[in-house]
Amino acid sequence: MNSAGVQEPSQIQHEPAEAMLSQAVSLSSQPSLPSLPSLGPRDQNVSPSHHQCLATLRGYSSYVSALAVDGDSLYSASSDGRIRVWPLEEASGRQEQQKGDDGCSATVVAAACDSSVKCLLAVGDDLLLSSHQDGKIRAWRAGSRKDGTPRLVLRAVLPTCVDRLRTFLLPWSYVQVRRHRWRTWVHHVDAVTALAVSPDGALLYSASWDRSLKVWRPPGFRCVESIAPAHDDAINALAVSPDGHVYTGSADKKIKVWRRHPERRNKHVLVQTMERHRSVVNALALGVDGKVLYSGACDRSVVVWERAGSGDGRMEATGTLRGHRKAILCLAAAGDVVCSGSADSTVRVWRRGAENTDYTCLAVLEGHCAPVKSLALVYGRDRGSFAAAGGGSALVCSGAMNGEVKIWSVLVPWLLER
């Protein structure tokens, strides 16, 4: 059973959608946070706004576990180990042109492996990283087949053979992971749930249910540091700010903040522990150029953390975004917009106000028939739909536990003018 209360075996099994749904719905039992003020409207009414579902992408027999956008491509991954690629422009325009709800047919299976995918991260230069239930990280290079259809070519599996060889013969490299079981420190020994890259691209971070935070150095992907245990329970979420602060969210209800040691650049130190949630922290996202952190948990609340005025990078909780009826499972943020996906099968799109202390719920995206497990948020893809409506538009991609991906267009008033 994973840290959010959803059962996921180490070997891939195809479970009925009803079973997965019932497991996810149990996440709603946690109360919301009364100790923090609500930053949204008290009556939970949605601001008048334009939004529409542009496409429904189908093709999975298991749930969609991760999404990532890279240029004109949308990558989606599932619990059956498959990664698919969809041309974003074509996918987001097809249903809009048909004026129907029949959705788009399945597209190319770009890659497949024998372990459930937990996270996707596009890092530029046609490189896609995926983390897996088997404790490994896989690096893929985008390419195409002879017929021109896209595919992913496996370039590396982390830890690499070089890392395994350099630690294999060194007794001090082994750590005890379970009773009577030892592994070298470069290995994750449970599902790798989150990936993030440093602002300069020099470091890759990975977090796992084994409670560890690991640091890798591209392009050879050598493991240069392992913080274990970084938390008292499984780590579910990870985010890195433009100034290099690393945030980890855990089933121990805590969010921890790390930064590089001022003298030892490959080492990280703990600088803050943030405790406001009363239940498992499932998701993290950074907005407003890294000055605002959003955290989502099984308590149905999104906590908003703002940079304190002390100048040392510390975060303070300023309030919560309420409205979801069940656990928050995923978050995505860009600029002053943040999206939250929930076990209540909806996505809420929020916009930070000019005074920075109030938020408007721009839209509640309803249409999924299962918990929303993954999100991606992009701007500028929906050309002209709301061009004359007094604002800019955003594309929200959402993946659910029934195997569907939906692409939504949402009007964000005055986004282009700010």
TrEMBL record:
Name of the protein in question: Anaphase-promoting complex subunit 4 WD40 domain-containing protein
UniProt key word Electron transport: no
CDD domains tied to this protein: WD40 (cd00200)
Database matches in InterPro entries: JINGUBANG-like, WD40/YVTN_repeat-like_dom_sf, WD40_PAC1, WD40_repeat_dom_sf, WD40_rpt
The organism of origin for this protein: Panicum hallii var. hallii
Keywords: Repeat, WD repeat
Pfam families: WD40
Composition bias, Low complexity: 26-41
Domain of life: Eukaryota
SMART domains in alphabetical order: WD40 (SM00320)
WD repeats: 57-96, 185-216, 228-258, 274-306, 321-350
Renumbered residue ranges of the record's region Disordered: 1-48
PANTHER family per UniProt: F-BOX AND WD40 DOMAIN PROTEIN (PTHR22844), F3I6.5 PROTEIN (PTHR22844:SF387)
Gene3D superfamilies per UniProt: YVTN repeat-like/Quinoprotein amine dehydrogenase
